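> forwarded from #structure-qc
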């Protein structure tokens, strides 16, 4: 998968319709959860969990892939200021290689939930139900552009992972991580053919060690 191409609309505001329905049932701590980094060839998968106070929203929050880097960074700061609490979790490349991307994603999400200062009464995740998450949860396909708290989690996870990949790019400049954040761009694949994998590459992903005939892992985000 290639990095996202922003298609943002500054006027778009995701409603709190989903959250309002849960709040009306007397459940005040709703954790929206999303992950970033299922598809790249390098770097961890990162998840975020966000709990907003009842009635609170962050204007402009939506699916992080549809926002420019500048807009994401601004919204990230606003989410950290406005949110009741934020939790961040990750699974390393070694955990991804040792298990698989689905198991590692669930592990990152679980760590994000465990990092929350408050225990959520309701958990909603983007996509399909997550096996091994370890708690009951609602799952909404396309939730990062439909549910406000998931959109906030999407932004937090994306900003945190991109920052990490830019820091790693300073140590491994050949792979172009400052711009491709680990995805399999032509520049990244060319560097792999020239220099081989770094310690931060996912060795079980196709393209990382093509001479071994390894199959690529499905994933997005």
């Amino acid at each position: 998968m290639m990095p996202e191409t922003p298609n943002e609309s500054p006027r778009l505001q995701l409603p709190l319709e989903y959250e309002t329905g849960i709040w009306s049932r007397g459940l005040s701590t709703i954790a929206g959860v999303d992950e970033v980094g299922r598809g790249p060839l390098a770097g961890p998968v990162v998840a975020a969990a966000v709990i907003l106070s009842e009635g609170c929203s962050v204007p402009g929050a939506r699916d992080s892939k549809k926002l420019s880097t500048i807009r994401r960074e601004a919204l990230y700061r606003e989410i950290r200021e406005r949110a009741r609490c934020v939790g961040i979790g990750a699974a390393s490349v070694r955990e991804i290689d040792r298990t698989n991307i689905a198991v590692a994603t669930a592990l990152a999400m679980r760590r994000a939930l465990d990092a929350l200062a408050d225990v959520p009464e309701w958990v909603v995740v983007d996509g399909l139900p997550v096996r091994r998450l370890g708690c009951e949860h609602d799952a909404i396909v396309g939730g990062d552009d439909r549910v406000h708290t998931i959109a906030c989690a999407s932004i937090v996870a994306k900003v945190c992972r991109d920052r990490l990949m830019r820091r790693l790019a300073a140590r491994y400049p050949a792979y172009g991580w400052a711009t491709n954040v680990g995805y399999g761009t032509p520049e990244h694949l060319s560097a792999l053919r020239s220099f081989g994998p770094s310690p931060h590459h996912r060795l079980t992903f196709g393209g990382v060690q093509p001479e071994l005939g390894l199959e690529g892992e499905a994933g997005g985000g």
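QC bot note: Confidence is low (pLDDT under 50) at residues 211-220. The domain at 17-164 is CATH 3.30.420.10 (Nucleotidyltransferase; domain 5).
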